[in-house]
Amino acid sequence: MTKMTRRTFGLLSGAATFSLALPTYLRAQDRPKVVVIGGGAGGATAARYIAKDSEGAVDVTLIEANPQYTTCFFSNLYLGGFRSFQSITHSYDVLASNFGISVVTGMADAIDREAREVVMADGSRVPYDRLVVSPGIDLIWDSVPGYSEEAAEIMPHSWKAGPQTRLLKEKLDAIENGQQIVMVAPPNPYRCPPGPYERVSMFAHILSSKGYTDAKIVVLDPKSKFSKQALFQEGWEKHYPGMVEWYGPDVHGGIKGVDPSTGSVETDFDTFKGDLVNVIPAQKAGEIAQKAGLANDTGFCPIDPESMRSTMDENIFVLGDACIAGDMPKSAFSANSQAKVAAMNVRGDLTESKVFPARYANTCWSLIATDDGVKVGAQYAPTEEKIASTTSFISQTGEDSALRKATYEESLGWYAGITSDIFGRQG
Ligand SMILES: Cc1cc2nc3c(=O)[nH]c(=O)nc-3n(C[C@H](O)[C@H](O)[C@H](O)COP(=O)(O)OP(=O)(O)OC[C@H]3O[C@@H](n4cnc5c(N)ncnc54)[C@H](O)[C@@H]3O)c2cc1C
Fold first, then answer.
1. Using a 6 Å cutoff on CB, does residue 42 contact ligand 1?
2. Is the pLDDT of residue 9 over 60?
3. For 27, 173, 247, 409, which has the most beta carbons within 10 A of its beta carbon?
């Protein structure tokens, strides 16, 4: 994309320009329109910040498939019995009532980029001046031969939160001593790099808290290493000795496929049978982004690192798991951070408000066992090529229990803070 400044872009695109002092009594049809597709960590944050900071000068519509949002983040803690399902489920009511956002519950089916309209599944059209696309991921079902949407009812992925999370919890709670859980871990890039291994920890926590010392968890990983590996492997040996077996490709030789009718996973080395099989397939940007031509051949959407603007369409911003965010991992923290940069640039386009240099941040906490929390994180800044890491930190092996407890408590504060930053303070 030819690089444009915000101002030249606004002029070239013919966008109406407004100042922040714009009176809020302007009729809705006179205000520039922002539509956001996807009410998750990225989209709902963007909608809230655009509405809040433009003080009524921008008309914001949020299109979300579901009436409520269950967070993938902390869904592992639900599996481990540390959180209720209700505590990880959030409503859009505050966004509508306190921030004047029009929340549309429904599926966006297509983006008519020429007409600048979102086409809904029912055929209705929602016009926009700027569009924010944050649809998360879609699963590439056939990346694991034998796996499918139907197979996921038997071998849940639980990589999109909601009914799949409950299904995995039911199956986990039904495991008995002497039985085996098999996880097929995902290849890079995927949402939440430490997520599969935190999940293994929560599986092990449930089994060991029931005294099931003969139960086993086998992880078949297409990757030869994984996020926070030393921390997780140290924790598994400390809290759940002998329970978790992790095999990379140099051991299993390649994952050949799954058979839901027998609960088995075939690899080059052996066939593993699971009383519970959790398959997390490869991932790509949500379907709507693919359909609209916003993704490249990686399956994800290239963006301008300074603004989160799509390199495929200057009127569109792509956030969160769907975008190619350089060194940033696909996480809710990242999506929330990117949303604020995008929101600032959207307002810059439409209201001429000041746009500051982009800065991004991420931290991913993981719980290994009760009060044993670890974290990894970084700060990021845009370069010509990508969003690049500037400084980073990670928990260390051998840390004392007081520090691990404090790290876990920090994650509780983060969850409370980020969910009110995304959805507005509830209740
Ligand atoms: C097990 C697990 C644990 C995790 N733990 C953490 C953690 O501890 N910390 C962390 O920061 N991140 C964590 N994550 C990652 C985090 O959940 C995601 O990175 C984050 O949700 C991405 O935000 P997003 O806005 O890109 O997508 P999402 O949050 O998935 O939101 C996308 C939304 O778009 C909607 N949508 C999609 N397509 C359409 C359409 N066509 N029309 C209308 N609506 C549509 C979907 O319904 C969805 O609500 C975890 C993920 C998993 C799976």
1. yes
2. no
3. 247
**pLDDT score for 27:** 54
Claim to verify: residue 382 and residue 319 sit in the same structural domain: yes
- Residues 103 and 198 grouped into a single domain: no
pLDDT of residue 28: 60
Percent of the chain residues topping a pLDDT of 70: 93
Residue 36 Cβ inside 6 Å of ligand 1? The answer reads no
Single-letter code of the amino acid located at 208: S
Mutate to test the pocket of ligand 1, among 90, 107, 167, 191 (most ligand atoms within 8 A of CB): 191
Do 166 and 196 fall within a single domain?
yes
Q: Which among 285, 394, 286, 377 has a CA at the least distance from the CA of 327? A: 377
Q: Where are the beta strands (DSSP E) in 97-235?
A: 102-105, 108-112, 117-120, 125-127, 130-133, 137-139, 180-184, 216-220
Residue at 1 is within a domain: no
Q: How far is it, in rounded angstroms, from Cα 36 to Cα 211? A: 48
* CA-based torsion, 263, 265, 270, 272: positive or negative: negative
Which tens digit of pLDDT belongs to each residue from 284-335?
Answer: 999 999 999 999 999 999 999 999 999 999 999 999 999 999 999 999 999 9
Q: Which of 279, 302, 328 is the last residue of a domain?
A: 279
Say which CATH number the domain at 16 has: 3.50.50.60
- pLDDT tens figures, 90-123: 999 999 999 999 999 999 999 999 999 999 999 9
Residue 423 has pLDDT above 70, yes or no: yes
Centre of ligand 1 from the C-alpha of residue 161, in Å: 8
Tell whether 310 and 407 lie within a shared domain: yes
Count how many domains the chain has.
2
- Give CA–CA dist 228/272, Å, rounded: 25
- Domain residue limits at 18: 6-138+283-423
**Co-location of 211 and 184 in the same domain:** yes
* pLDDT grade for 30, boundaries at 50, 70 and 90: confident
Contact criterion met (CB below 8 Å) for 405 and 363: no
| 187, part of any domain | yes
> Probe ligand 1: pick from 323, 331, 415, max atoms within 8 Å of CB?
331
Same domain assignment for residues 308 and 348: yes
Last residue of a domain, one of 254, 279, 304: 279
Q: Is 189 a pocket residue for ligand 1 (Cβ < 6 Å)?
A: no
Atom of ligand 1 nearest to the CA of 362: 11
